[in-house]
Write a structure and sequence with these properties.
Elements lengths: L7 H8 L3 H8 L7 H14 L5 H8 L4 E6 L5 H16 L3 E6 L4 H12 L4 E4 L5 H5 L8 E4 L8 E4 L3 H14 L5 E5 L4 H15 L6 E4 L5 H12 L7 E4 L2 H13 L9 E3 L6 H4 L6 E3 L2 H16 L13 E3 L12
Parallel strand pairs: 1-2, 1-3, 3-4, 4-5, 6-7, 6-8, 8-9
Antiparallel strand pairs: 10-11
Helix pairs in contact: 1-2, 1-3, 5-13, 8-9, 10-11
Protein name: LacI family transcriptional regulator
GO molecular function: DNA-binding transcription factor activity; transcription cis-regulatory region binding
Pfam family, one: Peripla_BP_3
Length: about 325
C-alpha cells in the first residue's frame, strides 16, 4: 500500500499549532519563539514533510528559482559559467532553471520572456539588441547581464576585461617575435569588438596591424571550415588569434589534417581557457576570462537585487594569460 504523504495539516496537528503558523514558518514570513521554531523543525523532520513550491509562491510570490540563459551549452565556457552560478544558488537555497538559446536569435526573446514568468530573477547571456533586451524590463524581474553592458539602469552587468585580454595576448605574441598576425573573429559577439580593439592597440605600438578573417559561428566546426582558406591563401599569417578556444581548436585540428606542423608552420591561440585546450596537441595558448567566477559574481549580484539592493555594473574581472605550446614555435621573422 502506498505510503501517505504528510500534509501541512499533519505538521500543525503534531506540533500543536495552527496551519497558519506552520505556513508562516515554512515561508519565512514570520519569526516565532525559539521553542516553537525548534518544535516545528523537529516535527517537519520526523514526518518527512516537504513544502509545495507552488503553494509557497501563492503565499510569498517567490519561486526560489533563478533563470539562467546561455548561448550554447555545448561550449565549455558556458558550462563553467553555469557551474559557478549554480554553486552560489545552492548556497542560498535557490534552484537554477536553465535555458539554452542555441545561438538562435529568432527564438531568443520568446524563450527569455517565457523563462521570466517562472523565476524570481534572470542571469542572461544574450546577443539580443539593446532595444529587444529593454522589452524584458516591463516583466519587473531583476536582471543581470553577462559579457555586455546595458544602457538600461534596471539591468546589472558582470564582465571580463575583454580589451585587456586582447592586449595581453597580442603582447605575448610580440614578445615571442611574431609580426605577421591574423585574427579570426566572430563579429556577432559583443566581446569580439573589445578583444580586437585591445590587440590592435598593442600591435600598433610595434607598427603591426592584424589581418582580419571572419568565422561563421563561434564553434569548433567553424574553425575547421575557415582553416583551408586561411592557410592556403595568398600569404598565411605566422600566428592566428581566434575569437574563442573552440574556434582555435577546430582550426588547429584541421591544420594538422592538412599536413601543417603546429606551431612551426602556424601558431594558434584563443580566449576562454576551456579545459579542452590543455589536453590538445599542441596545448592551446589562451586567455582565462574566469568563466566560473563570472557565473558566481552574476548570481551574487542578482541575489543582491532580490534583496532590494541597487544593481549596476561590476568592476571588470582581470583576465590571465595561459601560455602553452601552440605559440612557442619559431617565428619566420626571427
Amino acid at each position: 500500500m502506498k505510503k501517505r504523504v504528510p500534509t501541512i495539516r499533519d505538521v500543525a496537528a503534531s506540533a500543536g499549532v495552527s496551519v497558519a503558523t506552520v505556513s508562516k514558518f515554512i515561508n519565512a514570513t514570520q519569526r516565532f519563539s525559539p521553542p516553537v521554531e525548534a518544535r516545528l523543525k523537529a516535527t517537519i523532520a520526523r514526518l518527512g514533510y516537504q513544502s509545495n513550491p507552488h503553494a509557497r509562491y501563492m503565499v510569498t510570490g517567490e519561486t526560489r528559482t533563478i533563470g539562467l540563459s546561455v548561448l550554447d551549452i555545448r561550449n565549455p565556457h558556458f558550462t563553467s559559467l553555469v557551474k559557478g552560478a549554480n554553486r552560489i544558488a545552492l548556497q542560498f537555497d535557490y534552484t537554477l532553471l536553465l535555458v539554452d538559446v542555441e545561438e538562435n536569435p529568432a527564438r531568443e526573446f520568446q524563450l527569455l520572456e517565457a523563462l521570466a514568468r517562472r523565476v524570481d530573477g534572470l542571469v542572461l547571456n544574450t546577443r539580443m539588441s539593446d532595444d529587444d533586451a529593454d522589452k524584458l524590463a516591463p516583466l519587473n524581474k531583476p536582471i543581470v547581464m553577462i559579457n555586455r553592458v546595458s544602457q538600461n539602469p534596471q539591468f546589472g552587468s558582470v564582465n571580463p576585461d575583454n580589451h585587456r585580454a586582447g592586449f595581453m595576448l597580442a603582447q605575448h605574441l610580440l614578445n615571442r617575435g611574431y609580426r605577421d598576425i591574423g585574427y579570426l573573429g566572430y563579429a556577432h559577439a559583443r566581446p569580439n569588438e573589445q578583444r580586437l580593439a585591445g590587440m590592435s592597440e598593442c600591435l600598433a605600438s610595434a607598427g603591426v596591424a592584424p589581418r582580419l578573417f571572419e568565422a561563421d559561428a563561434p564553434t569548433a566546426s567553424a574553425g575547421e571550415r575557415a582553416c583551408s582558406s586561411i592557410l592556403f591563401g595568398p600569404a598565411r599569417p605566422e600566428v592566428l588569434i581566434c575569437y574563442n578556444d573552440l574556434i582555435a581548436l577546430g582550426f588547429l585540428k584541421e591544420a594538422r589534417n592538412l599536413g601543417f606542423s603546429l606551431p612551426d608552420d602556424v601558431a594558434v591561440c584563443g580566449f576562454d581557457n576551456i579545459s579542452h585546450g590543455e589536453y590538445a596537441w599542441p596545448g592551446l595558448t589562451t586567455v582565462d576570462v574566469q568563466s566560473e567566477r563570472l557565473g558566481e559574481i552574476a548570481m551574487l549580484r542578482l541575489l543582491d537585487a532580490l534583496a532590494g539592493k541597487p544593481v549596476g555594473e561590476t568592476g571588470l574581472l582581470e583576465p590571465r594569460l595561459i601560455v602553452r605550446e601552440s605559440t612557442l614555435g619559431k617565428p619566420r621573422a626571427a
